[in-house]
Amino acid sequence: MSEEKDTHEMINEALSEEDSFDKLNEALLAMEEAGILAMHDHERVDNFILKEVYADHPKAGECGSWSQLYWEIDESMHKEFLQSVGSAYLNR
After folding, report:
1. How many alpha carbons fall within 13 Å on the CB side of residue 24?
2. Is the pLDDT of residue 62 over 80?
3. Distances 67 to 4, 31, 78, 81, 86 between C-alpha atoms, Å
4. Alpha-carbon span 13 to 1, nearest angstrom
5. Is 49 exposed, middle or buried (0-12, 13-18, 19+ CB in 10 A)?
6. Is the pLDDT of residue 1 over 60?
7. How much is the pTM?
8. How does DSSP assign 48-61, residue by residue?
9. Which of 19, 30, 37, 88 could form a disulfide with 41 if both were Cys (CB 3.0 to 4.6 A apart)?
10. 2 pLDDT exceeds 70?
């Protein structure tokens, strides 16, 4: 239970600081290790972000994952982008 609580705390912290790419990745790794996420979750989120949310971005078709697209978008869009990613992971 303590490990689960720590994982949830990490996830909540990462999602409350959604402008941090590293924090979000730490939370996703913790979710994977806790068995909360599986490979299909990453594929689902990649498809959702690349083909729906940011499909109009000129680089979306060239990127294979949301994390690749993150580095291609304008820095001013990073926070909004990470919020979309975080929401996509939580909305199964």
Report:
1. 24
2. yes
3. 25, 17, 11, 10, 12
4. 18
5. buried
6. no
7. 0.79
8. HIIIIITTTSTTGG
9. 37
10. no
Q: Hey, CA dihedral for 41, 43, 48, 49, is it positive or negative?
A: positive
- Run of H or E including 67: helix 66-70
Mean pLDDT of the chain: 84
Taking the mean position of all CA atoms in its chain, how far away is CA 33?
16
Query: Are 25 and 45 contacting, i.e. CB atoms less than 8 angstroms apart?
Result: no
Specify the DSSP element, H or E, that contains 5: helix 2-16
**Domain definitions of the chain by residue range:** 2-90
Q: Per-residue pLDDT tens for 4-35?
A: 556 666 666 666 655 688 888 888 888 888 88
Is residue 27 packed enough to be buried (19+ CB in 10 Å), middle (13-18) or exposed (0-12)?
buried
Q: Which residues contact 90 (CB under 8 A, 6 or more apart)?
A: 15
Res. 73: pLDDT tops 90: yes
